[in-house]
Write a structure and sequence with these properties.
With about 400 residues, the protein is of the alpha/beta class. It is built from 15 helices and eight strands. The chain is about 40% helix and about 10% strand. The chain starts with a helix and ends in a 21-residue tail after the last helix.
């Protein structure tokens, strides 16, 4: 047909140049495949380079323990470990912890004969989060006592983030089996948080999450992080992205039920309720009773706090609540004084250290100098010539016998 038109049109003066030439075409499927292929190759190369860079960066910036915690479903997160009855405990043999899961030098579970064993209980202010293990007040207390010729062993049983109910259970399950001669308790600031949270319950279940399991935190993310370190950086660098939750990775905050976190006005209203003091009072009473039943001496320290330096994620850092928080810490200290007076238990007035602002790094954590002053105050009570527990255990008596 085309040839006939060409012959006809030649007679009209038209040539084949007037007709468009049909160019050969590649199959449509092959053309698209090449476009996709050539588009993906540079992208794939970029991803490979980015992933390689991410793996190098992570290994340079993070230690093996952190990489392991970010890519494995472990019951150990940093310095903490899961526990069936407590929200978490200290993980053994990491971050200066000994094999028994206490901060500081190793010791034998069985108390040696002729040795006085003192256990210092509390939270991060006892643990000493901003000072070395040797500078924390339990270690400094041991040095002071040993300088007096007293054969003594002081164990740091502080666990960051705990409240009194957890220390009560810890005393029963883990401390008394160590056969301590003296237990020193220093707490009162962390107690303010369950006292201030909404939906108050006497067992503090309004404050602690019953469903928290550090072995299941960010489960899907960690599966993907094992495949891609680039995704790990994208999800965790500087702030949480892509559904990653850094709160879940820190047991101190992960086990808190933030659904009940109060506003500033609610904090002040909640702390006005005297019934919220009953749990702490009951814990102090039971600690005294338990220690006496185990033939163990107990000493309480009042808590030193400067609320205007508040530094925590538990509550909003609002200056409007500082006065209410300070007042509640003092109320908790008053409970300690009242119960100890009623039961003839010694109190170390370490709350007076709050008068020296330069000792404090934040609202409750002191510098090494502050820990030294606290150790000296506890030391003075323990060796008081008339009433001290160690008054008869001086240089001429190294048997560890209690007066």
């Amino acid at each position: 047909m085309r040839n006939r038109r060409l012959v006809r049109d030649v007679g009209r003066g038209l040539t084949s140049d007037h007709y468009p030439q049909e160019s050969p075409r590649l199959p449509r499927s092959l053309s698209r495949s090449r476009v996709i292929l050539f588009s993906c190759i540079p992208l794939l190369c970029m991803l490979i380079l980015a992933e390689t860079g991410a793996r190098i960066a992570i290994r340079l910036r993070w230690g093996p323990e952190k990489i392991r915690s970010m890519t494995s479903h472990s019951s150990i997160h940093g310095q903490f470990m899961g526990h069936p009855y407590l929200p978490y405990v200290l993980a053994p043999n990491v971050y200066g912890h000994n094999a028994l899961g206490f901060r500081g030098k190793p010791f034998e579970p069985e108390k040696p004969k002729g040795l006085i064993r003192i256990v210092c209980m509390g939270s991060s202010s006892t643990y000493g989060v901003y000072v070395s293990s040797d500078d924390a007040y339990p270690s400094q207390l041991e040095k002071l006592l040993r300088q007096e010729g007293i054969q003594v062993e002081v164990i740091n049983a502080g666990v960051p983030g705990w409240v009194s109910t957890e220390n009560l259970l810890y005393l029963q399950l883990c401390i008394l089996p160590l056969k301590p001669d003296i237990v020193v308790v220093y707490e009162g600031r962390n107690e303010v948080f369950p006292q201030a949270f909404n939906g108050y319950k006497p067992d503090y279940s309004h404050y602690r999450r019953g469903d928290y399991n550090m072995a299941r935190s960010n489960y899907l993310h960690k599966c993907l992080f094992r495949i891609s370190n680039l995704l790990m950086i994208l999800a965790t660098y500087r702030e949480d992205r892509l559904g990653w939750s850094s709160v879940e990775e820190n047991p101190v905050y992960g086990c808190i039920d933030f659904r009940n976190r109060p506003s500033s006005s609610q904090v002040m209203a909640n702390l006005d309720d005297p019934a919220r003091n009953d749990t702490y009072r009951g814990v102090v009473q039971r600690m005294i009773s338990i220690c006496r039943g185990a033939h163990c001496k107990i000493v309480f320290c009042t808590f030193a706090c400067r609320a205007e330096k508040l530094a925590t994620g538990n509550l909003e850092n609002d200056p409007a609540i500082y006065e209410a928080l300070q007042a509640q810490v003092e109320e908790n200290n008053a409970i300690v004084r009242e119960e100890c007076a009623r039961n003839s238990v010694f109190v170390v007035e370490t709350a007076s250290l709050a008068e020296e602002a330069d000792l404090f790094i934040d609202d409750c954590h002191m510098s090494a100098h502050g820990h030294a002053k606290q150790a000296r105050m506890v030391f003075n009570v323990l060796i008081d010539e008339e009433n001290g527990f160690l008054a008869s255990s001086g240089k001429d008596n190294k048997t560890g016998a209690q007066p």
